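Task card 7
Instruction: Convert sequence to structure tokens.
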Amino acid sequence: MKKSLITLALLAACSFSAQAKLAAPAQTDEAKAKAAEAAAKTAHAGKVDSYKLCMSMEKTASHWQKTAKGLGKEAKPASATPACADPGAFAWPLPAAPATAASAAPAAVAKAAPAATPAKK
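Output:
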């Protein structure tokens, strides 16, 4: 029993040290773009959540003010709050065309179009 526990502990220690020595794989441009898009989506989702929270707080406050006025209580807002700002729909910018394709396109168009030849007399 004692030998099996010691063996198991040594195997676990060796596997952790082997994993620590492995290098992380290099990210490609596509993986970096996907990560940036995911981060932008997460940030936008946070803005949308904040907007929805602001709207619900405004709705609750207006209901409270109506109810308080009906009961004869004075209903003043404690402080001025900024208006809720709608973040709009999520829009991710399209990736830019590579520089080589942009510079090659005018040359390809020039080759494809026939040159104007003067009319013979």
